[in-house]
Amino acid sequence: MVVKLRLARLSKRHQPFYNIVVAKDRSARDSKPMEVLGTFNPVPQTPLASQFQPTQDKKFKDIQLDITRTKYWLGVGAQPSEGVQGILGMLGLWEAKPGTMAARGSVGGAARMGGEKEAQIEGWEREREREREQEKEMERDAVV
């Protein structure tokens, strides 16, 4: 049985809101999940002003997640979907792919986690450049 961490939509049209759930791989998107780990609101929210902190112009996307249960399911072998990979990468629970927002260091991403992660990302980028150069050489050889 393959288990996945994925997003289950809860809201109405033009107002997306998702539960981050653990579900069997072959079950439908909105079917009953094995466990609900948290919520994700992709619509940018304006933070509320307080007397100590004036209103900020920077909006945020609300993510609420039970980190201990998420770590458990990842440890057991559950595979996150692409959307959940991005969310976990921003929180530092999943290794972010190069070129994503989490890899660039936004919202606690992999680049903020330390020098080791930065070196790993640089290695990926170098490897990607080598692969592109090899593909270009193969195209040149094929033309000649």
Automatic annotation (TrEMBL):
Cross-referenced Gene3D superfamilies: 3.30.1320.10
An example Gene Ontology biological process: mitochondrial translation
Keywords: Ribonucleoprotein, Ribosomal protein
One Pfam match: Ribosomal_S16
Biased amino acid composition, Basic and acidic residues: 114-144
Stretches assigned to coiled coil: none
InterPro entries on file: Ribosomal_bS16, Ribosomal_bS16_dom_sf
Gene Ontology MF: a single term: structural constituent of ribosome
Region (Disordered): 103-144
Top-level taxonomic group: Eukaryota
One cellular component term from this protein's GO annotations in UniProt: mitochondrial small ribosomal subunit
PANTHER family: 30S RIBOSOMAL PROTEIN S16, SMALL RIBOSOMAL SUBUNIT PROTEIN BS16M
Similarity section: Belongs to the bacterial ribosomal protein bS16 family.
Protein name, per record: 37S ribosomal protein S16, mitochondrial
